[in-house]
């Protein structure tokens, strides 16, 4: 297991107040999937925050186009984090919800400065591709556990992030 996997496992907290969960997925499989989804949640939230930051701070000749596009992207991301967190909860675990947890779990790096507009686009292309890879990496665990709801969620997230990366990449040509 990777270092990030160990971090997620170590911080993963089962909901001790919840009744026993009998959904046809073992507790160990649910824990592995929830740990992976915690990494996905961290990536999604970090990308949300970064996109919102770029929305506020973009300037230049493409201001209006990028400002509106980034708003669409961060609005979708706000809905996505809820879907991922709710799946973690459905599996019987607490979803991470702090900046420090996200920083430890995320592969997407936060923006600590304000790059020029096309550099924002380049970073967001890479970030959407990163989130897609994170989602893709969870399929073996979901498949092994026959966890179709998680697999469906992952497919939807990958479709969105790959399409968004393609659209942003088109601006760089």
From TrEMBL:
<dbReference type="InterPro" id="IPR023188">
    <property type="entry name" value="DPS_DNA-bd_CS"/>
</dbReference>
<dbReference type="InterPro" id="IPR012347">
    <property type="entry name" value="Ferritin-like"/>
</dbReference>
<dbReference type="InterPro" id="IPR008331">
    <property type="entry name" value="Ferritin_DPS_dom"/>
</dbReference>
<dbReference type="Pfam" id="PF00210">
    <property type="entry name" value="Ferritin"/>
</dbReference>
<dbReference type="GO" id="GO:0016722">
    <property type="term" value="F:oxidoreductase activity, acting on metal ions"/>
</dbReference>
<comment type="similarity">
    <text>Belongs to the Dps family.</text>
</comment>
<dbReference type="InterPro" id="IPR002177">
    <property type="entry name" value="DPS_DNA-bd"/>
</dbReference>
<protein>
    <submittedName>
        <fullName>Ferritin and Dps</fullName>
    </submittedName>
</protein>
<dbReference type="GO" id="GO:0008199">
    <property type="term" value="F:ferric iron binding"/>
</dbReference>
<dbReference type="InterPro" id="IPR009078">
    <property type="entry name" value="Ferritin-like_SF"/>
</dbReference>
<feature type="domain" description="Ferritin/DPS">
    <location>
        <begin position="35"/>
        <end position="173"/>
    </location>
</feature>
């Amino acid at each position: 297991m990777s270092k990030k996997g160990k971090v997620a496992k170590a911080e993963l907290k089962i909901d001790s107040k919840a009744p026993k969960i009998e959904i046809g997925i073992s507790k160990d499989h649910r824990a592995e999937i929830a740990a992976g989804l915690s990494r996905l949640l961290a990536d999604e939230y970090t990308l949300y925050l970064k996109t919102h930051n770029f929305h506020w701070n973009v300037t230049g000749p493409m201001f209006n186009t990028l400002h509106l596009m980034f708003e669409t992207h961060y609005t979708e991301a706000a809905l996505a984090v809820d879907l991922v967190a709710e799946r973690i909860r459905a599996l019987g675990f607490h979803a991470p919800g702090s900046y420090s947890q996200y920083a430890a779990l995320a592969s997407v790096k936060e923006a600590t400065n304000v790059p020029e507009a096309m550099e924002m686009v380049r970073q967001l292309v890479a970030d959407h591709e990163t989130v897609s890879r994170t989602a893709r990496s969870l399929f073996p665990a979901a498949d092994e556990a026959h966890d179709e709801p998680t697999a469906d969620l992952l497919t939807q997230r990958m479709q969105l992030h790959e399409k968004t990366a393609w659209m942003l990449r088109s601006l760089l040509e």
